[in-house]
Amino acid sequence: MVLDVGMSAPEFTLEDIEGRRRSLHEALASGPALLVFFKTTCATCDLTFPYVNRLRQTYPGGWHLWAVSQDAPEKSMQYARRLDVRYPVLLDAPDYTVSRLYDPPATPTFFLVDDDGRVAYSTHGFAKDDINQIARLIAGYVGATAQIIARADDGKPPFKPG
Q: What pLDDT score does 1 carry?
């Protein structure tokens, strides 16, 4: 069952591609977290990550951004380099422990977890409206002015299923 808004986000600890252990409850002690589940072979993920990168650039602090890879470490590292991912990439393969807890229906799937540990927003696939809604929520958490991350006229489609 996919986690719905308002539900408690399951606690987890995973290693990132640099070997550092990342724990959700420790992260939430200093702000909300956006989890982005992905696969390196996902064309919709390729479309999505430049916008996710723009979220991090627009709102650099006060929240956590973790890409949760469902692939092996080497493939995950190559993907992160290719798409210029400059935030933690957590490794969920080969056991998919966290994917089993969160049950993402497709890739990418986003879960915005507030600092109380509840799912504040979730979506899957790519939709510019959803990216902009996540930006508005993050702006609210960090006390910033909301910015448009995914512009309608940027030459990319408004929606692509995952």
A: 66
Name the region of 71 (left: φ>0; alpha: ψ -120 to 50; beta: rest). beta
- Is 6 within a domain? no
pLDDT at residue 2, rounded to an integer: 74
> Tell me: the pLDDT tens digits for 96-139?
999 999 999 999 999 999 999 999 999 999 999 999 999 999 99
Q: How many CA atoms lie within 13 A of 142 on its CB side?
A: 23
Q: Which domain holds residue 25?
A: 21-160
Nearest to 66 by CA among 97, 106, 103, 20: 20
In a domain, 101, yes or no: yes
Q: Which residues pair with 68 in a beta bridge?
A: 37, 90
- This prediction has a pTM of 0.98
The helix (run of H) or strand (run of E) holding residue 62 is none
Number of domains in the chain: 1
For residue 55, which of 147, 127, 143 has the smallest C-alpha distance? 147
